[in-house]
Amino acid sequence: MANKKKIIVLAVGLVALAAAGYGVKSWQDARATKPSIAWGSVDAREVTLAFEGAGRIATLMKEE
């Protein structure tokens, strides 16, 4: 009878330990850093530098 009681106490202890480990693991996963999301617009332009192109200027466009 005493052996059954020890086995039951040991089994309950192992289940409690496993549940605590699972709880800690899921808590840490929830706190893990997630990728940042930024909203807005980006103004990007493609620029060709003058010294990379050869030749004369054909037209000079005006930008306002």
TrEMBL record:
<protein>
    <submittedName>
        <fullName>Membrane or secreted protein</fullName>
    </submittedName>
</protein>
